[in-house]
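Action item from last week, closing it out:
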Amino acid sequence: MLTSGLVRRRTLQRGFTLVEAMIAVALIGILSAVVLPGFRGFTETAQLNATANNVFTAMQQAKTSAIQRNESTQLVMQSSGKWCLRIPGADCDLDSNTLETGVVKKYIEPALPSTTLVFYDASDSAISSNAQITYDGLGRVLPGADTIDHVDIGLAKNTDKLLRVRLKDGLVKLCDAKRTGGSQACE
């Protein structure tokens, strides 16, 4: 009878012992150490892909707009990730949300802060100011100063990952600049 009373009293107590709490904290620490680096790599890759897709989409929209409107359309991009679709010569203020005369579309959200954009011309020289692509009414790229040949999108803190959006023969291609072979490699 005495032992059943002791068992009843112990089963009514609730909570954790200090040893159980320490084991739980240790397990959480170990799991965090294993999972967090993988999660960080996943988020970096997602941010890189999102920025590359924005650049890719802007180039595709510029070409499509030129063909639909059957007139020259210019894409102006900044290293901040902002871009503007306009009729050549029209003013485009990438700091305001309003569409000026001659402006077809704007994207004024900056690129994710962990990504970097570098624009290159056909001679593989970096374009320092506003980079641009001008498409004629048939969707062909017109040559000119500061014309984009390709855009490298990288991570500010991790140089192992680099995507490239490339114009080749008027086509836009998204590729992995770090790969040397296969369909995802840049040629």
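Closing note: The two ends are 85 Å apart (CA to CA).
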